[in-house]
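Encode chain A's predicted structure.
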Amino acid sequence: MYFWSIHRLKDELQRGQLAPLHAMRYLMGIWLLFTLGASSYWLFPVAQANVWDFGMLAASGLAVLIGVRAAYRANGGADGVDFLGRFHALAWVVGWRVLIPTLALIVVGSIAYEAITKPPADEAQNSDVVGFAASVISQVVFYSRVSIHMRDVTQFTEQEPTASAAV
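Encoded structure for chain A:
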């Protein structure tokens, strides 16, 4: 499994060498992290849900629908090859690459938001605004990068001559 090396992963995907076991591991890793993230609100409740939370839920749902569809199209749509294996492998590596800057964005954004605005009486609103912005930005970056890498893998695979064409 790769955690950061997108080029080595793309080479493996372009050669069609992603083993089903590895595809399953990427899938499990992504869904494990998703489950931990989704359940963290209930494990560590900080405030009652508000408009920012519902906005983030709506934006996340929209990002998933648009982002996965874009990656599907980048893989060739109905004529694509191994969409799920490629998607989960690429999403795993891209996810780690997006997570680090997102955490930095949250810290810097929180500091900047607090410095620019008068902190609200409800301190949770500060984290809600910054969290919403960070979530939307990180999801746009995540799905656009997955789609770009998917297109790279697909274009290389389509350009590679088949064994029968080389003869």
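Residues 123-159 form the longest helix (37 residues).
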